[in-house]
Amino acid sequence: MEERSPQNKLALSYQKCFDSNDGKPVYEDLVKKFGQTKTVLKPVDNTGRTDPYEICRNEGKRTVICYIETMLKKNINEDRPEEATNKE
Questions:
Q1: Is residue 86 a contact partner of residue 15, using CB atoms and an 8 Å limit?
Q2: pLDDT greater than 50 at residue 86
Q3: What is the DSSP string of 26-72?
Q4: Where are the domains of the chain?
Q5: How many Å separate Cα 11 from the centre of its chain?
Q6: Cα(38)–Cα(84) distance, rounded to whole angstroms?
Q7: pTM of the model
Q8: Which one, of 78, 3, 88, 69, lies nearest residue 30 by Cα?
Q9: pLDDT tens per residue across span 5-49
Q10: 31-43 b/e with 16+ CB inside 10 Å = b?
């Protein structure tokens, strides 16, 4: 069996973690609290003004969820350096 790249090993760890009985509700809670279900451009008060710092904080939270989702969707059997260099 060929060795997986460090990035694929990490993706597999994410998948095992969040696919477990304990991990699924944690993932759902993270998405609900920090994820794409919330708008990044949220008015601060009833005047409609937005706080640029709040926008940055919200985008940072959302970016973490996007990264986790990328790791969960990653095909851990691709991007093996050995296969790419041995193809001719």
A1: no
A2: no
A3: HHHHHHHHHSTTS-SS--SSTT----HHHHHHHHHHHHHHHHHHHHH
A4: 6-74
A5: 10
A6: 40
A7: 0.73
A8: 69
A9: 999 999 999 999 999 999 999 999 999 988 766 666 766 667 778
A10: beebbeeeebeee
